[in-house]
Amino acid sequence: MDVEVDLYSGRPNPRFRLEPAAAAVLMHRLAVLPPLPGRATPRATLGYRGLRINAGVTESTVTEIVVSGGAVFVRDRDGSEHVLKDVDRQLERWLVEAGAGQLDPDEVAVLDQDLKS
User: Which of 23, 82, 88, 95 is deepest in the core (most CB within 10 A)?
Assistant: First the structure.
């Protein structure tokens, strides 16, 4: 699975790859998240906005996942979409940790700072 860090405007965003074992952990973590009641949209601010995950070719029904500020937006292969609650941004923190070794240290620092707020 490929993960894009939605961080920049006007230049390419950093990316990292989740190896199959980490992708399986992601899907397990995703499966246990509760639904998020009400309406939510991904963050649309300057700077870090979240993580976009392209599920690629997997056995899962999921095609795209966006993790953004406590919400997880999931799009399935059939076009349906649903929103889950990322309690205390735990999934987002795990993803940043999983990709930290593949990202520039300055980018990781920006993500860590955002996750502290």
Answer: 95
